[in-house]
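Record format v2
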Amino acid sequence: MRWLALIWKSLMRSKRRTLLIVGSLILSVFTVAVLQSLLTTLNAVTNNPNSSNRLVVRHKSGLTQMLPRSYEAYLRQQPEVETVCALQWFGGYYQDPRNFFANFASDETTLFQTFREEFGVAGITEAQIKEYLRDGAGCIVGESLAKKNGWKVGDVVPLTGTIFPINPRLTIRIIYKSPKPSDENVLHFHYKVLEEGVSYMKGLVGSFWVRTHRPEDIPRFIERVDRRYANSAYETLTETENAFNLSFVKMLGNIGAIIQGITAAVVVAILIVTGNTMATAIRERTTEIAVFRAMGFSARRVLLLLLSEGILLVGVGGCLGVLLANLAAGGVRESLGMAMPFFADFAILPDTALVCLAGALAVGLLATFIPAYAATRRPITDGLKAIG
Amino acid sequence: MNTDRFDLGGGTPIITLRDIAKSYWREALEIPVLQGIDLEIPAGAYVALMGPSGSGKTTLLNLIAGIDRPTGGSLEVCGHELNGLDDDQLASWRNLHVGFIFQNYNLVPVLNAFENVELPLLVSGAGRRERRERVERALTLVNLTDKLQNYPRQLSGGQEQRVAIARAIVTDPDLLVADEPTGALDAKNAEEVLGLMERLNTEFGKTIVMVTHDPKAAHHARHQIHLEKGVLDKAVEVNR
């Protein structure tokens, strides 16, 4: 018999209790891992490093209001600006309304330059770009989106408009790969398809995405643009891309505080449950612990054995919880990644998994140490109940 | 029976107690359990500690076995002054020198007979092969080689106590301490266990100190020491 076997057999003395506590640990670690990963994913949306020198210029009254495309000329003239891309959320679907994904009408001439990190431009050839620019009914799609729908270059994708009364038939000219999965669940087509197909959109656009030369140019630029259009019929709200994304996340409320609150509640609950279970398990073995010590196991060795049981218990529960969270993350990416692109990046990152496992181990140690220490401090004769 | 007071015969003492006292405290109230115990037990002795409930016999056994400490006096067992050992040293000392036999066997329910007997060897530093040999030898001695894989719930009371005896002797200790070893057994199994203990004493030279209420069990010992209200009352050599 080895030490690990002794620890394992001790843990398995009450299989039902062990399974129940492992089950509650799995659920707790799963919940914490998923919630913390959700927070990480949302934070990544609002802290995108590619966005450090990108801005969004939109109507001050809201996203449903349009801006004149003529603003583009002024924006381009600003010394801080590298490029400007007019972009309009189209909101169409392919074949079935449930088959929803992000699709935009965008200025094909500046799209690749403005979003060069997302499009992985290095992988797209000049010839492909030329082909896309040449074909007014062309479109570009991310690899994930193409794979999901079985598309390849040259295929025709009929989109059904939900916001605008047109159903464009688009030919795929480029399938791009992106460093982030969420950026591959997107389709872009030529802005003029929208402008020509929808009469009231002529000369209008929902937003301009501006790339500046340097991040430090941004405050000056924002101040100048918004001052220029203040009190006009089309007042602008200029903000960084991260701030723009944050406004969407904020629609969910103070999700960070909610998640941290739930996490704290779960940790406290599992600490109490584990502590109570370990205390009961150790109390039931008072005589056995005394016998071990009588046979020559030092108090320290018995304490180590009991702590090992606690650590093994939470270790198994923690690992299974993280594993389950990983499986769930895959499901979330599959089911929500198209409708809400940031969920395509949803994953249990190694950091989060490690923090969850470390937290579980800390809970196990704390919950086991107190009853185990008390048990090993108890006189052997008390444990044996043998006062003659 | 002879009634020579506290003379357990010659030979090198394996247990020497000098003016041993033990008290317990209930809040501020001191409850003396043993007082002025002077006793020498020679190596190879088989002693039954007897006396009414509360006379201090189990407390005396616990002190000899090093699982309790006296409040006064000195105590040398198996060549070691126990008062001078710290808790870790005392644990190692017990592992090397003392085997325990309890009334309720106290086997670990989740371990089979082999693993229960192996337990004391886990801290002795013995290698895997040595442990296996020793465990098999001990279980052969108690005639349980066919029950190696049986769990305590699959054994009779007598068999459980024999496993406990195998566990007590597996480290080849000099001293066996037994607290009412037949208290939970029927007459037949009790006789079997007592016969086994007698054999360990006569054939293997183990010193045995046994607490018992049962005169029949005490008759298997070579000496009986009677305690009365925490003091030694008389020592009796058993004639068989």
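Chain A has two domains: 3-46+254-384, 54-213.
The two ends of chain A are 35 Å apart (CA to CA).
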